[in-house]
Amino acid sequence: MKEKLLNSYAFKTLLHGYKNIFCYTGRESKRAFGFFIIINSILFIIAIILGALLTRAIEFLGTIVCWAILAGYFLSTLSFNVRRLHDAGYSGKWCLLCLFAPVIVWIVSLNLESTPGSNQYGEEPK
Fold it and tell me: Mean of the per-residue pLDDT values for the chain?
């Protein structure tokens, strides 16, 4: 069971997202972006709940944990979204809208069609 989970596409996509947390070049497929957003958001909600419980027990430590979780979630989602926009042929600067309406930007990114073949941002993702 554990081996099946570790070899799953969803787990590999999540791991890929966190390995490339500071990578803003290249492209990501629509499928990978969808998996990453869903799984990362579920893990974020669980982690924030646990962080809030920790804050009730140890206020300062819980607050630091919550901020670290938020930073990791924001940076990984931002970099994945930039690469997704690159796949559709758009500049990653459009992700600045994530500061105001992140869910809308994610929905738009999920609905953008990929540029077939290579584009100015790299080769087509597999």
Answer: 88
